[in-house]
Amino acid sequence: MSEQNDLPVAVIGGGPVGLAAAVHLLEQGVPVKLYEAGTAVASNLRDWGHVRVFTPWRYCVDRAARELLEATGWKMPDPETFPTADDLVALYLEPLARLPELSPVIETGARVTGISRWGADKVRGGGREARPFMLVVETAGGIRRDRARAVIDASGTWRTPNPLGAGGIAAEGEAEFADRIAYGIPDILGRDRALYGGRATLVAGSGHSAANALLDLARVADDEPGTTFIWTTRGTDLVRIYGGGDLDALPARGELGSDVRDLAESGRVQLVTGFATTAIREEDGRLIVEGDTADGLRRIGPIDRIVAATGQRPDLSLTRELRLDLDPWLEGVRALGPLIDPNEHSCGDVPPHGHRELSHPEPGVYTVGIKSYGRAPTFLLLTGYEQVRSVAAALAGDVASADAVQLVLPETGVCTVPGGVTVTGKTFAGCCGGPAPEAADGCCVADAEAKAAGRGGCGCGVAA
Ligand SMILES: Cc1cc2nc3c(=O)[nH]c(=O)nc-3n(C[C@H](O)[C@H](O)[C@H](O)COP(=O)(O)OP(=O)(O)OC[C@H]3O[C@@H](n4cnc5c(N)ncnc54)[C@H](O)[C@@H]3O)c2cc1C
């Protein structure tokens, strides 16, 4: 065990939460080694670098990272302005990773492909916690095996998108026509513009990524004749994407929802709801997308390209030999599942949680960052920063600090759980003010108030 304590804590992933984890561990005097698969830190953020986030700078920077940076003369950008993901990388995460405290513990171009206990597979019990972790690390120079005392998995979900197929399995033809499908948020106004200008695109999905893509396509269509777009959603209720408008305490997110609603209502985009994609076929060199609807099979097209804004899922392969306890359908941390289930919640409001909720039956393993939410789409950076502060304190043996979790998220008007939700024995109120007055038309106080004021509602309800 003492040999183990000399080993570093392995942090997998150099995104904003993984980097913050390393800072908090260093602050606690705990040796750390951070593995980043990309050739530079924050490689997932760089992929959607053109997207402006909807939380201002003050919600994007970790407290401990900020203090470390400010000690070197770094200046926090205007806390009330909204960075793009590229801004987050250039103005915050790259300077952070370059700090003399951090840079020696970061290895880029190092992909962890498997984690186990030395000499003990998942089945083997007796004393497994006395064995160090074994990480299989792939680098340009070859594959090696590293030892670690504990593992913090902050590897995100971005590179494992959900397929277009509505059943969670690739639609017929999805692999065959992959060169005409973009997953996530392509840079439609920038590097990918030539692929979309003057062409017909189908955008599938009902989240903020779909909204971004649709609004960008509308801008291209303003300039380039012949640019058309169709929007399909699997559900029929668009409250989650339309959001709470001016009730949303993250105004930029409310505005995105309102803008996409205006676009849909303007008739410039053909909106097909209740469309469960089953197949993609080629006819005369163009694509036809087939799906099940309440009225039977429907064929949409011809189109030239597809944007699959269908969300992401965690890659569970690297932790397969570890004893993890995951939510059965979200595949995130089990304790968080009931709080973030998109069947019930549409916002990112979660009660404070830390090392206890993020741990697993395998001692010394924590899932943090957006991966802790699994398939749920509502993760906010502030949540991740408090997660890793608590986990680092726990690994340093400071249980009091690890248990003193404080998470103050921006209030939001786009979610509710009337009556509250119960998790690990505690009940938390829904965030829309509780059930609506009996006589009112609404599912909660905020919904009723929004409708009385002539708006569509607070945006809560079952996500599409
Ligand atoms: C379009 C979009 C907009 C968002 N807007 C906001 C917002 O406004 N406000 C907000 O608070 N949050 C927002 N989020 C949510 C969240 O904050 C981000 O997704 C954030 O990037 C999550 O940080 P992370 O560190 O958990 O994961 P990531 O940023 O995804 O980082 C994971 C890192 O791990 C690396 N990695 C992956 N696998 C391995 C491996 N096997 N070995 C080694 N390294 C690996 C990756 O290369 C990557 O660098 C947004 C997310 C998206 C997608």
Keywords:
18 strands; single chain; alpha/beta; five-stranded parallel beta sheet; 464 residues; disordered C terminus; binds flavin-adenine dinucleotide
Determine the oligomeric state from the structure. Answer: single chain
Based on secondary structure, the structural category is alpha/beta
How many β-strand runs? 18
Estimate percent helicity.
25-40%
Low-confidence stretches: 412-437, 455-464
Strand order across the biggest sheet? 3-2-1-7-16
Strand content: 15-25%
What is the C-alpha radius of gyration, as a whole number of Å? 23 Å
- Helical segment tally? 14
Largest sheet: 5 strands, parallel
Overall shape: globular
Task: Explain what the structure shows.
The radius of gyration is 23 Å and the shape is globular. It is built from 14 helices and 18 strands. The strands form 5 sheets. It has a 5-stranded parallel sheet with strand order 3-2-1-7-16, with helices on one face. Strands 8-15-9-10-11 form a 5-stranded parallel sheet, with helices on one face. The protein has a 3-stranded antiparallel sheet with strand order 4-5-6, with no helix packed on it. The chain is an alpha/beta fold. Helix content is 26%, strand content 19%. It starts with a helix and ends in a 12-residue tail after the last helix. The structure holds flavin-adenine dinucleotide. Flavin-adenine dinucleotide binds next to helix 2, strand 2, helix 3, strand 4 and helix 12.
Chain-wise SSE layout:
Elements: H1 2-5, E1 9-12, H2 16-27, E2 32-36, H3 43-47, H4 63-70, H5 85-98, E3 106-108, E4 111-117, E5 133-139, E6 142-148, E7 150-153, E8 181-183, H6 193-196, E9 200-204, H7 208-223, E10 228-232, H8 239-242, H9 251-266, E11 270-272, E12 276-283, E13 286-293, E14 296-303, E15 305-308, H10 337-340, H11 355-358, E16 365-367, H12 381-395, H13 399-403, E17 421-423, E18 426-428, H14 445-452
Parallel strand pairs: 1-2, 1-7, 2-3, 7-16, 8-15, 9-10, 9-15, 10-11
Antiparallel strand pairs: 4-5, 5-6, 12-13, 13-14, 17-18
This protein binds flavin-adenine dinucleotide.
Residues 12-18, 35-38, 42-45, 48, 51, 53-55, 59, 111-112, 154-156, 158, 185, 209, 318, 369-370, 379-381, 384 line the site of flavin-adenine dinucleotide.
